[in-house]
Amino acid sequence: xxKNNTFLLTVILLLACNVTMSDAYEVAVIKSADIKPxxxxxxxxxxxxxxxxxxxxxxxxxxxxxxxxxRDMNAKGVLAVGLDALKRAKAIEDRPVVYALxxxxxxxxxxxxxxxxxxxxxxxxxxxxxxxxxxxxFRRVGIIYDPDNTDFFVKEAKRAASxxxxxxxxxxxxxxxxxxxxxxxxxGEIDVFWMLPDITIANLxxxxxxxxxxxxxxxxxFSFSKKYVEMGAVxxxxxxxxxxxxxxxxxxxxxxxxxxxxxxxxxxxxKADLIINRKVARKxxxxxxxxxxxxxxxxxx
Length: 301
Hints:
The chain is an alpha/beta fold. It has twelve helices and 13 strands. Helix 2 (36-49) packs parallel to helix 10, helix 5 (124-134) packs across helix 6 and helix 7 (179-186) packs parallel to helix 8. The longest helix is centred in the N-terminal third of the chain and has 22 residues, at 2-23.
């Protein structure tokens, strides 16, 4: 009797496993590169998506058309991590695509109703409130941006600035070559520069000029990434890749359950690490409150 019960229990467990495996929601993960932030985002996605995951990184061998790979994998959804990955995945129209760690995704996803994702920015109100908290004496905030990439964000920032009590000094650029000229024209007009994750402006040569301008003229830069604080910006609200992955996983669950109905979900990042370069702040003669320093990471070692 005991043997029969054991056999019956084994059969039930095997059948349950088969049902679970056959019903599993498989997601193909396409990464622009095999680097730590992308891998952290994928780990967060795994934690939240309630799905099985198969990963691939873009390489010379991976063609622009990835649809046949998805068919072979039987993938029911796609996570695109990084801009190059999104460029490949946005051609897919017959299943949900969720993006993560993509700077300025707005143009890439225009008209794509099956593409949802997590933007690499925090809301303008949260960023400007934090900027004002770090630099309470400053009112004039400079921004250089490419309207093709961040026009929508800048319009929201204008509204947020009026709520926070700040003045935005805006300059539009069509290429990174415009940045030095526009920056020089801001001298004497701004107290602090707000660097947006705009792929036109966040060009290495443009960033180098910006940081040189900042240091020479004692105009602090408030950025979006720890690496720029390490290079010489005074502060940044740094994204947390793992939590962005968790958000992407939550979105995938939502759009999966919606079964194609409803609008795409595109949300801002929700969790930030505050980074301060105390060394640069001291050299600029800036006084940052002990409360801010206590809850921030020092990138000025």
